[in-house]
Task: structure prediction
Amino acid sequence: MRPIIVFGMSVFVTDGTKCVKSKDAKGWYVNCGYQEFQSVPNDELEDVETFNLEHNYIGKLHNNSFAPYPNIKHLRLAFNKVHTIDQGSLASLSELDILDLSQNAVRTVPGGLPKSLTHLNLNANPVDVDMRPLASAVGLRTLQLRGCDLKAYPALGIMPNLVTLDVSENYDIEDLDPAQLAVTCRLARLNITGASRLFRPGQQGAHCRCRRVVQWTETHKVALYGLGHPVQCPEPVDGDGEADDRDDPNSDACARAPEQALAVFKECMAEWEHRNTPYWAIASGLAITVALMVGLCVCMRRRRRRRRRRAAAAADKSQGAQSPPSSDVKSAANNDSAGHKTEPAALLSSAA
Result:
């Protein structure tokens, strides 16, 4: 039998294993941190929702690593040695919401991530810039790539649900253009702090490239961190616009988004509508149905009231037609009284 310790609103369970189990209002929490595990243990609480495996020596995530724990919502694997993630190792976690893989050795971003995932932390991993496999995580809203030694801005697929992107402390990022931002058409926060080579003064075309990015972020309401506030684009240099007319500081195209970026943005928004329209349609349909039902009830109530009023008026009118006028009633009463009074006199006359 497992010893159970109750402390406040939490329940702690010790069963002789290295990990500590506890339960609170958020569900079961299993803490296996600092236990020198080299692989994911398979004999822990199967109902775990928050699984802490930080500060171990786990190097590979196999397809069956998390099969015993289908209810995980928050998975912490920071400060391990993870270098390989099998394609389907995380796909079975259909309720996974937050995945922390920071401070590992991941080079290729994991594919086959569950649709439920909203937050992915890959900080301090030597990941490749090709991150198109992340497109399978259609619900991803936050992506952290701080200090990943990226050589360029990450190449993302169409990710319309991404809201926050952190690529700070990646000093080798040299370029950024609206087409790269357009694949994340609903991005609200972008952190590029520490990208010291981005839009460096003296670079050919840096002035217009910077203006295009600034114009894009202002138009689409993206909060941009790391370029100052307000952004100070570098001054034009001699020769700007000779190789590319868009880099001519005196041209309208200098700050205008290229057609390619607009086309990608349109594709991204269409994908967002495709993913989210069913929910909006259902909500709108329910709202319309409720409004119609309320309106119908109001109309029926008003109609019943009018009918009752008409029926009452008709009844009053009918009762008035059947009852004689008050003057006729009085006359009939007087006649009747007179008749009663003369009847004895008539009898006496007859007797005489």
Notes: Confidence is low (pLDDT under 50) at residues 1-12, 344-352. The helical segments are 178-182, 206-219, 259-322, 326-351. The two ends are 128 Å apart (CA to CA). The first helix runs from residue 178 to 182.
